[in-house]
């Protein structure tokens, strides 16, 4: 549960920084390319798979 809280705080902090340039009449859209999005998903999948493998071997 503690890790979830830390993740939530990091997510909110990064979202706030990404939308800091919003003004009146300006549409705020996070700038991310397809390559960056794919890399982020790959990094997340790698972390999840490593954690799963470590847990599987420790049993």
TrEMBL record:
Annotated InterPro entries: VPEID-CTERM
Superkingdom of origin organism: Bacteria
Keyword set, alphabetical order: Membrane, Signal, Transmembrane, Transmembrane helix
Membrane-spanning residues: 32-52
Signal peptide: 1-20
Descriptive protein name: VPEID-CTERM protein sorting domain-containing protein
């Amino acid at each position: 549960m503690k890790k979830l809280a830390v993740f939530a705080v990091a997510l909110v902090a990064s979202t706030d920084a990404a939308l800091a340039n919003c003004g009146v009449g300006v549409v705020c859209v996070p700038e991310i390319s397809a390559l960056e999005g794919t890399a982020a998903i790959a990094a997340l999948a790698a972390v999840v798979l490593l954690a799963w493998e470590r847990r599987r071997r420790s049993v």
